Amino acid sequence: MSQKVPDTALKELDQEECLRLVSPGGVGRVAFCGAPGPTVLPVNYRVLDGTVVFRTRAGGAIDQDLRSGLRGLDLKIAFQVDRIDETRHEGWSVLIQGAAHHVPEDEVAAVAGTGVEPWAGGDRDHYVRVIPVRVTGRRIRTL
User: Fold this and answer.
1) Is residue 80 predicted with pLDDT exceeding 90?
2) Which residues touch 122 (CB under 8 Å, ≥6 apart)?
3) What number is the average pLDDT over the span 111-133?
4) Domains of the chain
5) Residue 51 and residue 102 in contact, taking contact as beta carbons nearer than 8 Å
6) Which of 57-71, 104-118, 129-143 is predicted least confidently?
7) 51-56 and 8-13 as β-strands: parallel, antiparallel, unpaired?
8) Longest alpha-carbon distance in the chain
9) Whole-angstrom Cα distance, residue 125 to residue 17?
10) Residue 65: band (very low, low, confident or very high) from pLDDT cuts 50, 70, 90
11) CB 62 within 8 A of CB 101
């Protein structure tokens, strides 16, 4: 016999609440149009001055696919963070859409101070910053 799923309520979150939820940092997913097609990869991140910062490997998929070679061209990406409680059927999800920029050498020291540490290991000293243009989120709660 199947277990009854509890009644739930879905609520849209405002930008302030969304940024509060993601501000502690942790693990999120970067989505972008990569060379082989739509690509979604997990990254460890931190929030710094309203932007999302993560580290990647120089020459890796994120690094290569986010380089256009054209000065001033913004590459749009999506960044998602969520927390889910499967037992209680509750959770939240935040989607940040905006431009991804490689952090210039003269700004690396400030960004390195965020303490973002990639779990993947290896040489991941290449910093990427996401500047939010649109921030949306939803929360689902059991009634």
Assistant:
1) yes
2) 57
3) 82
4) 17-136 (2.30.110.10)
5) no
6) 57-71
7) unpaired
8) 62
9) 30
10) confident
11) no
Is residue 74's pLDDT more than 80?
no
Q: Select from 7, 22, 9 the least CA-distant residue to 137.
A: 22
Q: Which tokens sit at 74?
A: 């913004």
Look-up of token digits 């302030």: 16
Half-sphere exposure of 37 (CA within 13 A, CB side): 0
Distance CA 27, CA 57 (A): 16
Asked if residue 44 lies in contact with residue 116, where contact means CB atoms within 8 angstroms, the answer is yes
Residue 73 one-letter amino acid: L
- Yes or no: say if 31 and 80 are a contact pair by the CB < 8 Å rule: yes
Mean pLDDT of 16-37: 92
